[in-house]
Amino acid sequence: MTNGMLSPNYIFESSWEVCNKVGGIYTVLSSRAKTLQDKIHDHLIFIGPDCWGEKKSPYFKEDQSLLSAWKTKATDEGLNLKIGRWDIPGEPIAILVDFHPFFEEKDKIYTWLWENYQVDSLHAYGDYDEASMFSYAAAKVVESFYKHNLDKTQKVVYHANEWMCGLGALYINKVLPEIGTIFTTHATSIGRSIAGNNKPLYDYLFAYNGDQMSWELNMQSKHSIEKQTALHVDCFTTVSDITANECKELLDKSVDFVLPNGFDNSFVPKGAVFTKRRKIARMRLLEVANALLGTDLDDNTLIVSTSGRYEFRNKGVDVYIEAMNRLLRDKDLKKNVLAFIEVPGWVGEPRQDLVDRLNSGKKYDTPLDVPEITHWLHNMSHDNVLGMLKYLDMHNRKDDKVKLIFLPCYLTGNDGVLNLSYYDLVLGNDLCIYPSYYEPWGYTPLEAIAFKVPCITTDLAGFGLWANTVKGGYSEIEDGVKVIHRTDYNYSEVADAIKDTVAQYSNFSADEVKKCRQNADKLSKKALWKEFIKYYEQAYDMALRKAEARK
After folding, report:
1. Is 13 helix (H, G, I), strand (E, B) or coil?
2. CA 133, CA 495: separation in Å to the nearest integer?
């Protein structure tokens, strides 16, 4: 117990993204793990889905000796588990549970859910069933572990992430009232859906009715589980003030705490290693661009990029392309710009013609066909990025001062063209640009500044709002992060603000660039987990107090 607050002896945390890298929540959990592991060593247990079957998960190291006595009992109870360690800093214990056997009981589980919590699972489709069965399986794991290894003297917290883990939180609430429950929504399913369906989210937020919108957008079941979990857990949380507002309006429940997403910078290279890796990244990006475009861009080129999930409007990919198009005609631009879109699309294979050029070691002065993309897509004619480039007539012509290249693959280090991982590439940038329309937090800008790359974001991203709070006003590019004011309707102004900032940056002296990079680095240090973990401690305290009261 610190300063009168209750601290958990055990934390169980479940998410679809435990040992399963599909989105930003993976980064939240995997970067936070070490900070918690240092506090309660191996009493932090993550539970994720076993979606690997016979295949080996690249993120998980199985260990047959870990919790083996309990595993035998759990297996007898019908739970099929892999126990080991998540291969991340801190190496916390992770349990991967096979949720498929529970599909046989699906109707019974949904009936229980309706009778106890009025959750409407009738309109389920897509990933709802899969997520729900995993969530139920995760709760059964905790129930078994608690029954065999713990008792009422232990202070235990169960932390569920996203609607996908809501069912398990409600099950534990009901069946194990001595466990404190926490639910974190990283984005409301309805808010994301409103934004993704090109409806204005912010101006009308006060007028939207979450239940009504769930019918309109065919999201009844996801909304229902999310809302009932928010209403019934001991502590309801989200990741930023902007999403807290969304929860209040769309889920009819105010959050108890905002838990901002921190960062673990232990893997950011230092000193000479950093300098060397930055040089390698820049050389590789320029090499690939020159081979594709038939150009001779040198190290004086301004390299910029945007990255993240392929949500064309929500992540601001559209306004990024628009800004680069306007930059082509900007008189104040003092350097050539090489702009990348690093967003995984429906990728086919690496371009053989590009690979051949790279392997030849020769210089070329003619572009390849379609010099806007590094890997072929399965849907070339229906891709949003390529469609917009075509519409704007952006084809990387020889004299264009701005060249834009789409990298449509996961940057894991073996994509067949760049063959460097995302973190190895990001530090080669001069600027990163994330002009999100819908972004509950925003890891990409935080990662950029941790690698000393100044970035541009908006005040519709939780991270952008946080940067403004630190500054005490609108953060400018000289501060390391330029935060642009974004609304439902000012797309054109946002594009201009990006264009102007890039042009301004191209005029910076070496000293001004250095200062800017230092400020980015300094700001990132204020968002380390050691600074943000205190908010989690408040949430644990609240959940445990409510559980104690029930005992």
Report:
1. strand
2. 43
Nearest to 11 by CA among 52, 54, 41, 56: 41
Based on C-alpha coordinates, what's the Rg of the chain? 24
CB atoms within 10 A of CB 69: 9
* Entry pTM: 0.93
Q: From CA 318, how far away is CA 311, in angstroms rounded? A: 9
Pairing relationship of beta strands 257-258 and 302-307 according to DSSP bridges:
unpaired
- What is the DSSP pairing of strand 93-97 with strand 81-86? antiparallel
Cβ atoms of residues 242 and 465 within 8 Å: yes
Is residue 48 within 8 Å of residue 96, measured between CB atoms? yes
Residue closest to 436 by CA, chosen among 526, 297, 318: 318
Residue among 348, 346, 351 nearest 383 (CA): 346
> What does the alpha-carbon distance between residue 205 and residue 212 come to, in Å, rounded to a whole number?
13
d(CA 180, CA 176): 9
Range list of H helices, 41-188? 68-76, 106-117, 128-149, 166-175
Closest-CA residue to 240 (of 258, 262, 263)? 258
How far apart, in Å, are the Cα atoms of 244 and each of 207, 255, 437?
16, 6, 16
Let me know: does 482 contact 501? Beta carbons within 8 Å. yes
Burial of 393 (0-12, 13-18, 19+ CB in 10 A): exposed
If the chain, 551 residues long, is cut into consecutive pieces of 10 residues, what is the mean pLDDT of each piece?
84 97 90 95 97 90 97 97 96 98 97 97 91 98 98 96 98 97 97 93 95 96 98 98 97 97 92 98 98 97 96 96 98 97 96 97 96 97 97 96 97 95 96 97 95 98 96 98 97 98 98 98 97 97 96 81
**Rounded to whole angstroms, what are the CA distances from 471 to 265, 446, 458, 498, 512?**
22, 15, 14, 20, 19
Amino acid of residue 195: A
DSSP designation for 374: S
